[in-house]
């Protein structure tokens, strides 16, 4: 393997310089509102943003990305690179040096054994870790000493920053979770609802799908932080109510992800109680296409695998026609305005990874979609719905409950009707849809529908782990507790081989080329239909200081620096 230029030596490292505060807890209570309510505080058992971000106030990674997308040390001394010796010359290991003196919120030392345990927890074959793609290629994790961790890879790994980097891959305490391994993981309610952490806050009470009460961690490593003594983290409701609670009434200090039409936001801001923050990152509103048969008469282990292919979405002509019929420009205009961009890619950023090979999707083509289905033998019946060999193009289209998403559903249903596809719409409470409950039939992971729509993104600026989520074997299934990133149940050996090549490539331009090619394989196979690159838009009270909107990591990444403006 030829390594043209080793990118690892050039990883940017910067020190955080937040404002200092006079006294921990001096600013009283801060009230945060996520209209998608958290259902668990363990990111390894849920891929939902609401769960990852609420947990990020409590449990932390070794390193994370700042608001500019730069990787920064968090619980460690610095970012390991080939230049400083932290990454081995043969690229088969990375060594992290933990900062001395860090303790868990219960006062016990944070050590390398906790990091090692976290890897074993997520990599357990029966655990169903929602973040398993981040540990792709990890052979072992060893505690060299109490403050030194070495991650060993089964082959050279030019980008070794998957495990323990970003809000999706935090460290959990071994002493708390050691009896929660494998299939027992979802059963550990007390642990999953109240993790002990190193973050600025600790849990007092967690009511799933409702409210989290937290207080300042009195063992937090900076004695002057956090400025707030307590947090009320409310979940539920809708984006409209969340926007009003900050921008109009001032009832809350912060509202996440205001997925509202631009004119609605503008009207709310006139009240003067709050301001909005917006930034673009990797978030894409997309339609996932189910490659397996969701027929309820099939056993779960069959419905979750490619053993039972979808009766009509297995035909690429149908999947392509569904994409061609969509007017993405109109969706972007009515749904997001300046906070959205039309995209034909599931990896729209950074620019290095943004492909131009799929740009034809930017223009709606109803006539072309009809011709494609005609040529493929799908014939319209008297009711206008196409069929072939007794199989009708009748789709169950699900998403979470949200005004913008229901507008999208209504328009897309209309366009699909114009090409002879019958569409039934379903919306599910967001806290349930994005929850990780393995017993619920309504989660996006179980995907008991033909297509489903939501936004997803990845931490950081390198998509290696994210793209690894669509490898064969990463699909949610009963034996993985219905966790896994490969929601469409896509499997392509050529894709997996190309991803192997990406993992072994150091040259940044080559990584860009391979990342674009992986994106293109997904796009041109139409297992994912991208719609809009979404900017993140959230709101904060005019009295809340320190907010630094981050689209590359948890939005609450610097909550320790938040404070009350006097």
Could you describe the 3D structure shown?
This protein is α+β, with helices and mostly antiparallel strands. It has a domain at 281-535: Dipeptide-binding Protein, Domain 3 (Dipeptide-binding Protein, domain 3). It contains 15 helices and 21 strands. The chain has helices at residues 49-55, 112-123, 174-177, 189-193, 239-247, 262-269, 300-303, 316-324, 328-335, 366-375, 403-418, 430-433, 464-468, 493-503, 508-525, and strands spanning 29-34, 63-65, 71-73, 93-97, 138-145, 148-153, 201-207, 211-216, 230-235, 254-255, 274-289, 340-342, 379-380, 386-388, 391-392, 394-400, 422-428, 451-456, 528-541, 544-545, 563-564.
Summarize the structure in short.
With about 575 residues, this protein is α+β, with helices and mostly antiparallel strands. Helix content is about 25%, strand content about 20%. It has a domain at about 280-535: Dipeptide-binding Protein, Domain 3 (Dipeptide-binding Protein, domain 3, Roll), CATH 3.10.105.10.
């Amino acid at each position: 393997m030829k390594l043209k230029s080793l990118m690892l030596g050039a990883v940017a490292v910067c020190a955080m310089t937040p404002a200092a505060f006079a006294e921990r807890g001096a600013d009283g209570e801060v009230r945060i509102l996520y209209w998608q309510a958290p259902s668990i505080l363990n990111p390894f058992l849920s891929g939902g943003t609401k769960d990852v971000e609420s947990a990020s106030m409590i449990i932390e990674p070794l390193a994370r990305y700042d608001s500019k997308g730069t990787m920064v040390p968090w619980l460690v001394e610095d970012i390991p690179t080939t230049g400083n010796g932290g990454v081995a010359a043969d690229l088969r290991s990375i060594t992290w040096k933990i900062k001395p003196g860090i303790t868990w919120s219960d006062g016990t030392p944070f050590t390398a054994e906790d990091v090692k345990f976290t890897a074993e927890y997520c990599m357990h074959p029966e655990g169903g870790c929602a973040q398993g793609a981040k540990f792709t290629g990890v052979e072992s994790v060893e505690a060299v000493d109490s403050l030194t961790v070495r991650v060993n890879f089964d082959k050279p790994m030019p980008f070794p920053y998957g495990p323990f980097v970003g809000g999706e891959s935090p460290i959990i305490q071994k002493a708390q979770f050691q009896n929660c391994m494998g299939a027992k993981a979802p059963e550990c309610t007390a642990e999953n609802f109240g993790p002990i952490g190193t973050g600025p806050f600790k849990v007092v009470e967690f009511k799933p799908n409702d409210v989290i009460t937290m207080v300042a961690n009195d063992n937090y490593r900076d004695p002057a932080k956090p400025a707030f003594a307590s947090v009320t983290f409310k979940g539920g409701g809708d984006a409209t109510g969340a926007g009003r609670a900050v921008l109009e009434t001032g009832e809350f200090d912060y509202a996440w992800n205001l997925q509202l039409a631009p004119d609605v936001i503008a009207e709310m801001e006139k009240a003067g109680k709050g301001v909005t923050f917006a930034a673009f990152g990797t978030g894409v509103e997309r339609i996932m296409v189910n490659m397996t048969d969701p027929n309820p008469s099939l056993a779960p282990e069959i419905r979750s695998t490619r053993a039972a292919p979808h009766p009509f979405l297995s035909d690429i002509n149908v999947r392509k026609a569904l994409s061609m019929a969509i007017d993405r420009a109109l969706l972007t205009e009515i749904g997001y305005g300046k906070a959205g961009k039309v995209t034909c890619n599931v990896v729209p950023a950074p620019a290095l990874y943004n492909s131009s090979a799929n740009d034809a999707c930017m223009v709606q083509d109803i006539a072309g979609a009809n011709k494609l289905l005609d040529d493929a033998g799908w014939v319209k019946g008297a009711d206008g719905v196409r069929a072939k060999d007794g199989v009708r193009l009748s789709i169950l289209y699900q998403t979470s409950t949200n005004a913008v998403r229901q507008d999208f559903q209504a328009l897309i249903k209309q366009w699909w009707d114009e090409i002879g596809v019958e569409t039934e719409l379903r919306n599910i409470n967001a806290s349930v849809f994005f929850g990780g409950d393995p017993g619920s039939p309504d989660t996006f992971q179980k995907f008991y529908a033909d297509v489903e729509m939501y936004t997803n993104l990845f931490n950081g600026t390198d998509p290696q782990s994210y793209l690894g989520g669509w490898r064969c074997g990463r699909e949610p299934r009963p034996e993985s507790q219905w966790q896994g990133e490969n929601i469409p149940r896509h499997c392509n050996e050529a894709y997996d081989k190309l991803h192997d090549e990406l993992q072994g490539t150091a040259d940044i331009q080559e990584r860009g080329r391979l990342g674009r090619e992986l994106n293109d394989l997904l796009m041109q196979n139409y297992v994912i239909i991208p719609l809009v690159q979404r900017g993140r838009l959230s709101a904060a009270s005019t009295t809340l200081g320190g907010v630094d909107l981050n689209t590359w990591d948890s939005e609450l990444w610097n909550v320790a620096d938040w404070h009350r403006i006097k």
